[in-house]
Amino acid sequence: MQRLNAAELDSFVGQDYLVTLPNVELLPVTRLFRRCEEDEALRDQLFSKGSGYLFYHVLDDLFDYCFPILDKIAYKLDSIEDDVFEGRSEEVVRDISDAKQEIISYRKIIKPERATLRVLERQIERFLPEELELYFDDIVDAAERIWDLLDNHKEVVEALEDTNESVISHRQNRVLLVLTIVSVILLPLTLITGLFGMNVKFPGFDTARAFWIICGTMLAIAVSLIAYFRSRRWL
User: Fold this and answer.
1) Which domain covers residue 145, as residue numbers?
2) Is 99 helix (H, G, I), strand (E, B) or coil?
3) What kind and span of H or E run contains 21?
4) Which of 69, 94, 135, 214 would you call most buried, defined as having the most Cβ atoms within 10 angstroms of its Cβ?
5) What is the pTM of this model?
6) Do residues 91 and 198 share a domain?
């Protein structure tokens, strides 16, 4: 399972300019400016409405890029759920841990962005034409949708973790139950063999008949205990 890698984008917005400084290459930003280089009509459309409008499109492409990542997380959670209920609980423990860590990391990225976008929404208005002032509401809404989806994924992965632990615990309890029943069945049989294995004479000592009587008694005790356990639905 792949890890979520975070990147930072520093931006300077002025009346007639926009400078973007990513610490690593951000594909949405790279693709946007490459399209502007190749498509003159698109370049004129984005650049003619001010730096604020261009910055809006940069952020819009970045937040749109977040949703496919959320879809991948949702797919991973669905796969984990199938594995849990198909009896592969031990194998998915690591997958659950990875998914949980990925969601936590994603939340750490998005949480401060929500407050930043609200501040930016108020500050960016001076670089936008009046008819475009509502554009940044879309980005704020996108951030809130991402946060809501992350909250939902967080609840799902925690529920899957609890369910998986319950399945593993139930399986271990079942194994312990079987081992306990086997021990209880063997206990009286061990007592009988120990009693008649002492170096003393008893009725029928040193006869084949005594041997078969003892074996029959042990078998009857074992069958009776098994029948009792089945009647109590312990087996």
Assistant:
1) 9-170
2) helix
3) strand 18-22
4) 135
5) 0.71
6) no
